[in-house]
Give the backbone structure.
Amino acid sequence: MAPGPVGATNVSVGIANLPNQRHKIVSRKGTNFTVMVVGESGLGKTTFINTLFTTLMREYKRPEHRFNKQMDRTVAIDVVRADIEEKGFNVRLTVIDTPGFGDYANNQDCWVPVIKFIDDQHQLVMNHETLPNRKIDDLRVHVCLYFIQPTGHTLKPLDIEVMKQLSSRVNLIPVIAKADTITPAEMLAFKERIRDCISTHDIQVYSPAVHSDDEETTRRNTSTLAAMPFSIISSENDVVVNGQNVRGRQYIWGVAEVENENHCDFKKLRNLLIRTHMHDLISTTHDSHYEAYRVSKLTAEGRTDNDPAISARRNFEAKMKEEEGALRKRFAEQVKVEENRFRQWEQKLISERDRLNEDLDKQHTLVKQLEEELEEIIAARKR
Amino acid sequence: SSGSGKSTFVNTLCESPVILRKDHLDAEKAAAPKTINITPTTIEMDEDGLKLSLTVVDTPGFGDNINNEPAFADILEYIEHQYEEILSQESRIKRNPRFQDNRVHVLLYFVQPTGHGLREMDIEFMRTLGPRVNVIPVISKADSMTPQELNAFKKKVMEDISHYKIPIYDFPYDEDEDDEETIEENTELRGLLPFSVIGSEDEIVLNGRRVRCRQYPWGVVEVDNSKHCDFSKLRYMLLSSHLHDVKDITHEVLYESWRTEKLSKEGHHDDDEEEVVID
């Protein structure tokens, strides 16, 4: 279809009001936001989530229960949901935690449950698209925060492998956890090395578009990008500093503040996640990651754009018929086997019964004999 | 594991840059699985007028790989190899008077300050190595925890250690034999386990004195301040007060039990009249 004539209206028709309409719709509907946190235990994932949304989303694991799972060597997927409201706008927030990740001596394949979860969500949405009722609980992960241990050296092989796998499937944002272990000078060098590592190994981390119409926004975006990977400090407690109540961690030697830009990049990350780029995260998940998954899945199944769904259905039906036939055969065989078994059992029972009957007869004749003898003796006695 | 502050700790302990930063900072090599490089370094120190030859064995690369179980065997082999050397020396007819005893007297295991207790890797490793060497768990980078968190974490670690029956060097004392002072000292040190350490090679001048410390925008953490961490107590214990105790236990308990195990495996029993294999 050729595009129609292009031109601008010289009387305002009201097209410019479209964003406002969208705004009304979105603010009424609310939105669905799913965050996944991945990283070794003890890096502050739970605290971070609680700090980010300033509510106690996740409770800490009870220390007495740790003996049950410490040696389990499994990675679990924990889903926590909450509804958050600010100024009338609702967010259905889902947080996905991965306890057990990277905690063991042998961490081979510990990322598999995580990857599977992400792929499964895409698959679920894909399946539901062809059903008549398309409303589902969309649990597709919009952003994945990967927590890096503050070693000060560089990324570990586990980090690199997992980030590679994650970056092709989901918006990945690496963060440096427990940033209050690293002095500012060390932090700059560490970030530099991490960025080096990321580019050497071709890991596609989420980078927001820098340029925008607004000068202020462009500047903000550049500074945000320069600070990646973000260093974070989290705390659920308030501390008094200079007469003010701030979120922070109280040490003997001072207070590390969460919202202080000189101490860590928490504010930048929060702005990125919520204030400025939440919608971008949600839409890129749908537009690029979901689409990429869909394409790869469908081409793997052998479908191309020219082939209608019919041939796939035909293949599918043929396969079903085959399997049905095989099942039927197996069923018939099983029935035969069971019947044989029962027949044999029956035979055995019959022969057993005959034997017992024989025995009974024998006993019977014996008794008769004895009775006769008895009568003879009585008769003889009588004479 | 890498980045837990081992090299910095050693350099702080010896007050000189004994261990240099190596190429584990290279981005390209970061993804490759590393074999651990067990490298002993010896330095001469003067401790309270007493000359001390301190050998430090570093294990860069431990705990870094995706699968770390082979590393356990490597370290255990190193320790047992030293024992084997001693055994073969002892069994010689003509012993070498200048033979150097390279046995490992203390193993400092650096625990990550997660706040959640020991991890499976820590438990497995200490359980494997505990019967062969004096293991002392140490909490590295202790400046990532507030005092309450540190106490709670220490408690959790000790609970884990007793729950999984992990053998560590816990300052043993004999109620009957040792004197009051020793008992008190050992109880106090035992209560401090695992030691929290902070390492730093940088010095600044604070209040007129030179202090080793880490400078943060929110404050300065001093290495030698016993309110900030247990580094000075650990140093004193390692290099002065418990030096001989640790060596004694290595020789009399750990080496002997290894020797018994090894010789009974080879088919020697105490009631056999056969002698030990002679070189």
